[in-house]
TrEMBL record:
Source superkingdom: Bacteria
Listed name of the protein: ScbA/BarX family gamma-butyrolactone biosynthesis protein
Any Pfam family hit: AfsA
Residues in the signal sequence: none
NCBIfam families, A to Z: ScbA_BarX_GamBu
InterPro entries according to UniProt: AfsA-like, AfsA_hotdog_dom
Domain A-factor biosynthesis hotdog: 31-169, 204-311
Amino acid sequence: MPAPLAVPVAPVAPAAPAAPRPEAASDLGPLVRKRVADEVLITDWRTVSDTTHHVTAHWPQHHSFYTPRSGRYSPLLLVETVRQALALLSNAAYEVPLEYKLGWEYCSCTLTPAMLDIRPDDHGAEVELTITHALPAARRKGGSVRLEAQITAVRDGQLLGAAHLRYTCHAPAIYERLRGQYADARAATSHAPLPGTPVPPAHVGRTSDKDVVLCPTTAPRRWQLRVDTAHPVLFDHAHDHLPGMVLLEAAGQAAHCLAGPDPTTPVTLRTHFSRYTELDAPCWIEATPLQWPQPDLARTTITGTQNEQVTFTTHVITRR
């Protein structure tokens, strides 16, 4: 994830009229940065104005990672849907070239009870996103692009949640300067160590070792991030650093570990990404003592530290 930028950044030009959209998930895959067609959630989009777009997503009846228990969708399925939608719009609506590298600076997501209670029908669930970007201006050719978006998600007229993201799109030459030796995704992925021993899945709201992203330590409220680059969802293609979705999953699992043993669900995640979290060094996940502002609500702050530097901070509220 991107550190504070020391390169010239200019916003993107206003949205052009919607181009013809590919019908197959395999065609949309590059636009949403997914290699495996089954992981593509976006099905359609249309322009409302220069700054507002509607995006349609289909959530499958069962997802191998984002329906972890009781058939209910994980809150992070909504975040992944937003991630895919913004990747799509950066190119299709705002003409950011596909070779640009996208990264988050800030991500906030708040869920409603409707999201926590949602269950798929026989065909899954259709979700409508309304995405409004801050009014952009013309950008310099070959420069980076900084964007900011507000998102609401609705299913069958019910509000599921809202999100706010700030993200940056870097031209290849700028990205290579920023990342230096880490710019090659395949090389960086190959340098990741084998995943360590996971926390027991039940402690983090999971049923399988492979879906656990935390390793235990001897210190209270402290874990080592467990990185499995063979995970078919979190790493469906090579990355030059740890994806934001892995870090958000780690924050949610850490909060669940503290608030358990009863099942809990993150209802608010507010994350600042301050540095890239690299694949070749341990990242330590630490939590503040749990607070209970209400009997069914718990909150904590999760921090990721690598090489003695904070890489991300997430404020989490969970609900029993």
